[in-house]
Amino acid sequence: MKAVILDGYTTNPGDLNWDELKKLCDFTIYDRTSPELIYERCKGAEIVLTNKTPLRKNMLEKLPDIKYIGLLSTGYNVVDIDYCKEKNIPVCNIPSYSTNAVAQLVFAFILEFCNRVSLHSEAVHNLEWTNSKDFSFWKTDLTEIDGKTIGIIGMGKIGKRVADIAEAFGMKVLAFTTHPSQYKSVEYVGIDELLSKSDFVSIHTPLTPATEKMVNKEFLGKMKKTAFLINTSRGPAIDEQALADALNKGEIAGAGLDVLSAEPPLPGNPLVGCKNCFITPHIAWAGFECRERLINILTDNLKAFLDGKPQNCVWK
Predict the structure, then answer these.
(1) Does residue 120 have an active-site annotation?
(2) pLDDT tens readout for residues 23-55
(3) Angle separating helix axes 99-115 and 117-125, nearest 10 degrees
(4) Predicted confidence band at 87 (pLDDT cuts at 50, 70, 90)?
(5) Given 263, 291, 292, 293, which residue is catalytic?
(6) Is 125 a known active-site residue?
(7) Hey, is 184 helix, strand or coil?
(8) How far apart are CA 152 and CA 159, in angstroms?
(9) Can you give 191-204 as a three-state secondary structure string?
(10) Which of 282, 289, 292, 293 is labelled catalytic?
(11) CB atoms < 10 A from the CB of 182, how many?
């Protein structure tokens, strides 16, 4: 079977291999595929694997040979799911491969905000400690997270893992979700109460019409001025201009973001260069172990399809 990977580089820039996948089909692997090359590269292929390269209805209609679409990601908004369901084309994603890593980055942001490690390390390398009259100095307020309150919006696997780590740090955990179920000592509350009481607000929701730009001026206005916002879910969950305004005016204390509405960010994105805004380039998922796990699940998904028993199909 002819098969293509449209954008394999971010998953495997060379430190992993595709050997097990290649045993299953005759694969052509592209590092990246621009929109104008999608048709040419997919023409005649029965198996198409994609990460961020979009497969919309108008393109899929031109590619009648496709029998299976595999995602190198958990999210599947790059594929027209309704069309694929109508044509009985399985679209299989990679669930739960980066749960621990995403939760880890949440606390990397929290600890950076509380301890400002990078700021103080830079100060030492700039000889500010060498030239100090005192054995210790600090350039900004420091705080400990024990006893602080974290509000988690969305209590799927990642939200629950964040709750586990928060409890280990001695934090109080509040949560808001549309499907509450008792989890350890987590207290489920309404969104307004969560925002008004939380020292840290961490977003873990899927991107839906209801969650798009849910972090807006009204949302931010309900947070404490001393609170810190974290988003490791989807960039469009935030109204970026509203967040930039809130940060620059000191209406909230800071933000930690691993995702933006457009990636890479477009010129003029109001959050780039914004006050008290820590931004990482969508790296929560990118640890070696996560990417290795992703490729293993990707391979298992394709094996299951070839055996006539598709698994992790997003439209079933």
Answers:
(1) no
(2) 999 999 999 999 999 999 999 999 999 999 999
(3) 60
(4) very high
(5) 263
(6) no
(7) coil
(8) 6
(9) HHHHHHHCCEEEEC
(10) 282
(11) 7
